[in-house]
C-alpha cells in the first residue's frame, strides 16, 4: 500500500515475504493459502498476471466501477439546455471568449451524466468548470464541489466563486467510528458533484465518495492525469481514463496568455519528455535554473535564494511566499536538512521555544500538519504559522488561514517545520514561488511526474537548483508509474457487458 499498490503479482509477493520474514518459501505459500481461504486476501489477475490483492482494496476498486456504471445510466438530472444559447450567455457573464475546445467541453458536460476533464496548466480547465457551474446554477441545479485537500478546496473556491469543501468534510467524518456519516443510506444532496484534483484521490477515499453520490446526480471529475498519483493505494484517475469506459475531455491547447509563462511552457515540455530551456532568460522571467554541482554549493545557494535574492527581486516574503519543494525527505538537499538550514537563517529561535521530536518550534515558524485532526479541523498538508509559544502552559498557538489553533506540547508529533517540504506533500497546493533542488543525489526519486508536479506548484516563480544532468534524468524517467490495480479492468468488464445487472461483474479467482 505504501508504494501505491492494491495487490502484487504472486511471483513478486512470495519472494518478498520470504526475504522480509526470513522464513522458508514453503511456509509463505502455506500461510498465503490460509489467508486466501479466510478471504483476508483475494487471488485475481491484472493483464493476465496472477496477483494477490488485499480484500478491502479489491472490494473498493470493484465498488467504484459498479457505482460509476450505475451513475452513467440515464441522462443528467436537469432538463435539456440549448448550448447555442447557453454558451454566448455564459461568455457574457464570465467576460471571456471561449475557445472551440472549451465550448466542446461545456456542450458535452451539459448532456453527460459522468464526465472526466483532464489537462495540464494553462489549458483552461478552471474556465470550463466555471462556465458549466454558471449555466447550471442559472437553471437551479444543486451543486456540490470538493477536493482532496483543504488547500485544493480553497483554490477551487477562489477560482470558481462557488464554495468547495474537502472530501472528508463533504462526507462528514464521524470522529467516533473514523468513518463517514454520508454514504449509501445517507447520500449527498446534489444534482451535480464536481471533484477537483482527482489525481490525488486514492481507492478508499474514492469508494467512500462514490457511495455517497445519489443515483440521480451527475458527476464531473477534474484533474491533471500527468501529476503524481495519490499517496494512498491505487491510480484512480489514470485507471478511469485508460479504461475507455467513461467520456473524457483531454485538453492540450495552451492559451495565449498562459503560453507567455515559462513555468507553463516548461511544465508542458517536461511532460512531453523534453528538457525545458535551462539557459538564462534574456529578460525578466518566471522560470530559472541555477547551477549547483554539489551539496556544498547547492545548500547555501538555496538559502540565499529564499532569504535574499528572490525577496529583493520579486518583492516576495521569504517565509510566507516562497516554498522549497524537495524530491525526497532524506539527504543533504532533502526536506529535513533544508528545513534545519532555512529555519536557522530565516527565523532563529529566541527564548520562547519548544524542542520536541527532533525539531525546534518558535514564534514565526512556518509549520505543516502531517495528519488529519478532525477536532481541530486541521488536515494533512495544511500550512500554518506559529503565533506564540507558552512554555509555562505547555502549549502554543498557530494560525491556519487566519484561524487560531492551540496545540499542547504533547501534540507536536502532528507538526513539522515547513520551510522545505516534499513535492508529494505539495500536491493540490500552489505557492507564489517555489525553489526545487534537482540533484543526482536524488537519483531514486528523479521521475518525470515528480518534476512536473513540482514545477506546476509555482504561480509566479519557479527556480530549479542543481545539475542539468539531474533534470535530464528526471525528464527521461517515466518508470515510476506502474501500480498494481484492477479498477481499469473492472470498468472495461462493465463496459463490455453493459446489459448485465449491476453487481454481477464477472468473478475471478
Please tell me about this protein's structure:
This protein has 509 residues and is of the alpha/beta class. The protein is 37% helix and 21% strand. The protein has a six-stranded parallel sheet with strand order 6-5-7-8-4-9, with helices on both faces. A five-stranded parallel sheet has the order 10-21-20-11-19. Strands 17-16-15-14-18 form a five-stranded antiparallel sheet. Helix 15 links the parallel strand 20 and strand 21.
Notable features of this structure?
509 residues; alpha/beta; 5-stranded parallel beta sheet
β-strand amount: 15-25%
Class derived from helix and strand content: alpha/beta
What's the gyration radius in Å?
Answer: 24 Å
N- to C-terminal distance: 21 Å
Which helices and strands, and how do they pair?
Elements: E1 7-9, H1 10-21, H2 25-38, E2 41-46, E3 49-54, H3 55-72, H4 83-94, H5 100-111, E4 114-119, H6 125-138, E5 143-147, H7 150-160, E6 164-166, H8 167-170, E7 192-195, H9 203-212, E8 218-223, H10 236-242, E9 248-251, H11 256-259, H12 262-271, E10 287-291, H13 295-314, E11 322-326, H14 335-346, E12 354-356, E13 359-361, E14 366-369, E15 383-390, E16 395-400, E17 403-408, E18 415-417, E19 420-422, E20 431-438, H15 448-455, E21 458-466, H16 468-476, H17 487-496
Parallel strand pairs: 4-8, 4-9, 5-6, 5-7, 7-8, 10-21, 11-19, 11-20, 20-21
Antiparallel strand pairs: 1-3, 2-3, 12-13, 14-15, 14-18, 15-16, 16-17
Helix pairs in contact: 3-9, 3-17, 4-6, 5-6, 10-17, 12-15, 13-14, 15-16
